[in-house]
Design goal:
Strand order of the largest sheet: 5-4-6-3-10-9
Shape: globular
Structural class: alpha/beta
Distance between the termini: 25 Å
Number of helices: 11
Largest sheet: 6 strands, mixed
Helix content: 25-40%
Radius of gyration: 17 Å
Number of strands: 10
Strand content: 15-25%
Length: 247
């Protein structure tokens, strides 16, 4: 197994697809997706275009759908939800499909949707992702950060490092044996520097500061936790993610 870290979807190799691709958007899309599925959501369907989201979701009854839209960290007017995982309670999402479009994370999922296996990861479900990688041993794994509008983000890279470090530790394999590019080494170094203060790192991150200006401290606190949800979002068809146990 070789791990490759890409800080943004734009950095992934063109005209190549890995055996397994993992989308990471800690603040907040993949944290929200994991939370929805852990809370009993039927599925999460992702869109880059808001009008397309509305059109497709019209086929679902209002009792079985939720529309979540976020642009610039703020909720899209007229949608049921923004992109806060804290709003995704079992009472609200259980049995429903979440139709979601966000600034960054949905773009990443579109880039990797043709990989053999597509997963989403956040700090909160890191252990479930690591367990899948160790159990299935895909030959090539891309861990793709969403960044912010095409730029590097601390929170996605530290999550990639957390995944890679755990894989190396649990397989008892030197990281140089499984690192496919230098970005893996740098992501692990970032994680090891901040593993005991991930909330502090998220405060330094530019998107973390953006969310703080939007009164998003509780979101940062929630998204900085590690391994609190035992859920593995996996693509069942392009753009549709379900909990692995429900496939």
């Amino acid at each position: 197994m070789k791990l490759f870290v890409y800080h943004t979807p734009e950095q992934t190799p063109s005209e190549q697809e890995p055996n397994c691709a993992i989308a990471v958007d800690v603040l907040r899309a993949t944290s929200t997706m994991a939370t929805v599925l852990a809370a009993g959501g039927e599925a999460v369907q992702v869109f880059s275009d808001l009008e397309k989201l509305i059109q497709v979701s019209e086929a679902w009854s209002t009792e079985h759908r939720l529309r979540a839209g976020e642009r610039g960290g703020a909720k899209v007017p007229g949608f049921d939800l923004g992109n806060s995982p804290l709003d995704c309670t079992p009472e609200l999402v259980s049995g429903k499909r979440l139709f979601i479009s966000t600034t960054n994370g949905t773009r990443t999922l579109q880039r990797i949707e043709n990989a053999q296996v597509v997963l989403t990861a956040a700090l909160i479900n890191r252990a479930a992702v690591v367990r899948y990688l160790i159990n299935h041993q895909p030959d090539t794994v891309w861990i793709v950060g969403s960044g912010w509008e095409g730029n590097f983000s601390l929170e996605d890279t530290v999550c990639a490092g957390a995944i890679a470090h755990a894989v190396s530790q649990q397989m008892q394999t030197p990281i140089e044996k499984i690192a496919g590019n230098d970005e893996v080494i740098s992501a692990i170094a970032l994680y090891l520097q901040w593993q005991d203060n991930l909330l502090g790192l998220l405060h330094h991150a530019s998107h973390g500061q953006r969310l703080l200006r939007l009164d998003g401290y509780e979101d940062l606190k929630y998204c900085s936790q590690t391994d609190i949800l035992d859920v593995l979002p996996i693509q069942s068809e392009p753009g549709v993610l379900k909990a692995a146990s429900r496939l």
